[in-house]
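Sequence design from tokenized structure. All designs in this work follow the same two-part layout: the structure record, then the generated sequence. An example of the structure record is given first.
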């Protein structure tokens, strides 16, 4: 690709993005199943169910945001410092927005 190529030209999807999308879609399905289980009548009396439901809903939002980052080409870049998030971290937590250092700073 030449330096004067149009930014609107489509780029072939990187294998890493394809794998990340696959992991995110799996996490999305898993979290949806958890949410459905939490909203069934059997959990209505469970004191933890509302907090669990909120946590799962937040995770689903994070997954959706990660899928958008794949589309716009920013997936895998830390939103705190801009450095690449290590592949190992993305394998474990594919929807993460931060490297470990920036995540630690945010929680301290």
């Amino acid at each position: 690709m030449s330096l004067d190529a149009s930014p609107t030209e489509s780029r072939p999807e990187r294998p890493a993005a394809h794998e990340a999308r696959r992991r995110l879609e799996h996490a999305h399905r898993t979290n949806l199943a958890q949410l459905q289980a939490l909203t069934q009548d059997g959990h209505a009396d469970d004191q933890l169910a509302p907090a669990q439901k909120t946590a799962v809903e937040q995770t689903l939002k994070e997954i959706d945001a990660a899928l958008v980052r794949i589309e716009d080409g920013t997936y895998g870049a830390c939103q705190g410092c801009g450095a690449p998030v290590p592949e190992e971290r993305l394998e474990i937590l594919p929807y993460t927005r931060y490297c470990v250092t920036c995540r630690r700073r945010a929680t301290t």
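The chain has four helices and no strands. We note this feature because it recurs in several other targets discussed in the main text.
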